[in-house]
Amino acid sequence: MSDRLSVRWTLVPRDCPRPVFACPTCGGDRPFHQSGKVRVNANGKRLDAWLIYKCDDCDRTWNRPIFERRLAADIPPVELAALRSGDPAFIRRLAFDLAALRRKTPTIIQSDDVTVEKAVIGGTTASVGIDIMLALPYPVGLRLDRLLAVELGLARSRIIALADAGRLVVRDGGNALKRPPRDGQTARLDLDGIGDGRAIIDAAGRPANLAADTTPRIASDDP
Predict the structure, then answer these.
(1) Integer Cα distance of 67 and 46 in angstroms
(2) Which InterPro entries match (predicted)?
(3) How confident is the prediction for the chain on average, in pLDDT?
(4) Are 90 and 83 in contact (CB under 8 A)?
(5) R_g (Cα) of the chain, nearest Å
(6) How far apart are CA 205 and CA 152, in angstroms?
(7) Are 148 and 170 in contact (CB under 8 A)?
């Protein structure tokens, strides 16, 4: 029997990234949220397509270009069908393309509000350690130390103390705890001899009743 519980946490952000622009109506910088809609315009054999955003305060729209004067024959049929039907999953994938958004504005707000789906993939709760594997279908804004604190039912200072004591090891090391988690990243916890270790292990494999801290985070090019 393994002495470690292996779990996979899949992080699903509830809100799409919000680019910040100067809104002509409001007269200052405002976040714009994704409306869930696309606009497609055909001119002969060429297409223009935009993802439609709205100002958080006044609903003024901003159209983010997806294709400009693109030959319809050059667009993969699946993508073209998704655009024309306004497929929500396809629109969501476009909305989380941070690289494309950064070409339009350097300031992007990412919410810390995520759903964490937990699955036990090995070991038992009788283990003395935890291996946490993180899966991120889309980028998230919350820091890794905050995620671990909420989902393990610990204070953030306790997470830092465990790391300082060498009982918490995160792949990528360095300042990984102060950064957003990455897809495929792992965190390894050694809880042998810790009084509340069993409670921490139990929490690792079950959904938390707490909501993650929803303080917005401004995205940057810093990984």
Answers:
(1) 9
(2) DUF1062
(3) 88
(4) yes
(5) 21
(6) 9
(7) no
Are the C-beta atoms of residues 170 and 185 closer than 8 Å to each other?
A: yes
Q: Please return the burial class of 213, using the count of CB atoms within 10 Å of its CB with bins 0-12, 13-18 and 19+.
A: middle
The H or E element containing residue 158 is: helix 156-164
User: pLDDT tens digits for 171-195?
Assistant: 876 789 999 999 999 999 999 999 9
> What are the tens digits of pLDDT across the range 73-94?
899 999 989 988 999 999 999 9
- The C-alpha atoms of residue 137 and residue 92 are separated, in whole angstroms, by 11
Q: Are 219 and 110 spatial neighbours (Cβ–Cβ below 8 Å)?
A: yes
* C-alpha to C-alpha distances, 26 to 33, 59, 111, nearest whole angstrom: 15, 10, 22
E-assigned strand segments in the chain: 4-13, 18-23, 28-43, 46-55, 61-71, 108-110, 114-122, 129-135, 168-170, 186-190, 217-219
Entry pTM: 0.80
User: Token pair for residue 192?
Assistant: 């042998």
- C-alpha distances (whole Å) from 193 to each of 26, 175, 198 are 58, 27, 10
DSSP state of 184: T
- Fill in the DSSP letter of residue 113: -
Amino acid 24 reads: P
Q: Are 100 and 117 in contact (CB under 8 A)?
A: no
What six digits make up the tokens of 73?
């024959």
Residue-wise pLDDT tens digits, 49-73: 999 999 999 999 999 999 899 998 8
List the domain boundaries for the chain.
4-15+111-219, 18-95
